[in-house]
Amino acid sequence: MATKERPLTPKMLAFVEAYDGNVQGAAEKAGISYDYARRLFTKSHIVRAIKERDAEKIQPLIATREERQQFWSETMNNPKENMKNRLKASELLGKSNADFTDKILVGDLEQELKDIPDDDLDKRIEDMQGEVLH
To answer: Residue 57 carries which DSSP code?
Structure first.
């Protein structure tokens, strides 16, 4: 059976709002004792409230995939923007859509490997290991 969380008291709310990574500083800002603040910080609902507060503050600052793609599209299509920036926007837009990835079907690769004679395959593996080591 799920327990119902108690609402935060004004002192708890003040602590949650004041917390910036420093319990003692938050206690001073919230007007509560350091010992009380330390006890609050051990409570899961207080920590959760701090995380929720941080998520609300940070979320609007993080661009979504669609926002980035829209920005790159606008930059790419803006004739007033210099060509270097337009090309970079085009490249980033292409990368975000996986336009430059090679798709290899595992079945095709498996068949290709089966068709290579063992001696040739051993030589290729040795060559690749040599490249990695150098």
So the answer is: H
Per-residue pLDDT tens for 80-104? 999 999 999 999 988 888 777 766 5
CA 43 distance to own-chain centroid: 27
Task: Enter the tokens of residue 67.
Answer: 């926002």
d(CA 3, CA 91): 51
| Cα angle value 97/82/69 (rounded, 5°) | 20
At residue 119, does pLDDT exceed 90? no
CA distance 119 to 20: 63
Query: Residue 29 in contact with residue 8, Cβ under 8 Å?
Result: no
User: Model's pTM, two decimal places?
Assistant: 0.43
